[in-house]
């Protein structure tokens, strides 16, 4: 490919971090993961971070923790109503289904690609217990408006921020607006730790729950003074003591070590991604038959979306064919309209609030190309040249 979706962000420092772990002979999570968690919290200005094996695992643990929290006003139960946008990745939705929640799908805004705030207002009911906000392709939601809609209601906000590390809204990092927020550090994301993800929260009880259910539901990783159980001072007794129904989604020590090196570079990566976005916007605003994502707050620009408007001189099919033949890698905008996946939806308890015209439009007319951590202006020049060849 001449223009790929993503590129390698590693150099000798990540390789030295891997070697450091090999020499230590400590491969499962240990001090390197703990150091990364501390640094991740400092970067996001959150109290607590729990690293896990993937962003998908982070979403799973966020949902599981909501069933285990003691506060009955916030605790989720099977059958509770959860509002989700109709466009996101599959593992935004699957943990909610797996825990027996009733999903209410709401349309997205064709300009921001995030949940449509007017339709969200109409969707909120007395049964709504949770909103899963998704910051799509690096773009923050308008959290001021969301909090206006749920104030004085017993509705919890969680964030799937897997595509939006480094984005901000009103000078606050996305992923930190909700009670918990999830992140991914898969290869194609803002930083890469092989596989990996994180959950951040300012809630100490949830932090302790997450520590336990990340590793089997045992007590071993809990501090002696914690908000879940009374621990024995005898480490032998605590070796195999289980208190919560947990998983094993621990990260590798290598991933933690790599993450520490990647976080040092992240500020410069975000600066370069935003510079690339300014150039992309300049090139594509001249084309009235194409629409690009409207930025809310300060996006971290995971990728660049392109929507082929009604009446354009070519179709999305034409555009995809041209990009593929020109060795420009592209993908649908995440899943497009997730509700087209009828076979998996047979397992869901769900409703649809209103129409999904925005999600259906981007499903039929949208795609995205990659953004990288370094200067890709030449790639963007090549992209606009191939697009113009169709018009």
Q: What does this molecule look like?
A:
The protein is α/β, with parallel strands linked by helices and 391 residues long. The protein folds into two domains: 12-261, Type I PLP-dependent aspartate aminotransferase-like (Major domain) (Aspartate Aminotransferase, domain 2); 266-388, Aspartate Aminotransferase, domain 1 (Alpha-Beta Complex), CATH 3.90.1150. Helices cover 38% and strands 15% of the residues. It is built from 13 helices and 14 strands. Strands 1-9-8-5-4-2-3-13 form an eight-stranded mixed beta sheet, sandwiched between helices. Helix 1 (12-24) packs antiparallel against helix 9 and helix 3 crosses helix 7 (204-214). The longest helix has 32 residues, at 253-284. The radius of gyration is 21 Å and the shape is globular. The two termini are 23 Å apart.
Beginning-to-end CA distance, first to last residue:
23 Å
Oligomer: single chain
Number of domains: 2
Poorly predicted runs are: none
Q: Write down the Rg.
A: 21 Å
- Count of helices? 13
Question: What is the CATH C-level name of the largest domain?
Answer: Alpha Beta
Please report the total strand number as a whole number. Answer: 14
What's the main sheet like? 8 strands, mixed
CATH topology of the largest domain: Aspartate Aminotransferase, domain 2
Helix- and strand-based class? Answer: alpha/beta
CATH architecture of the largest domain: 3-Layer(aba) Sandwich
- Main-sheet strand order equals 1-9-8-5-4-2-3-13
Task: Give the overall shape, derived from the CA principal axes.
Answer: globular
Question: What fraction, in percent, of the residue positions are helical?
Answer: 25-40%
By CATH's scheme, which homologous superfamily of the largest domain applies?
A: Type I PLP-dependent aspartate aminotransferase-like (Major domain)
Strand proportion: 15-25%
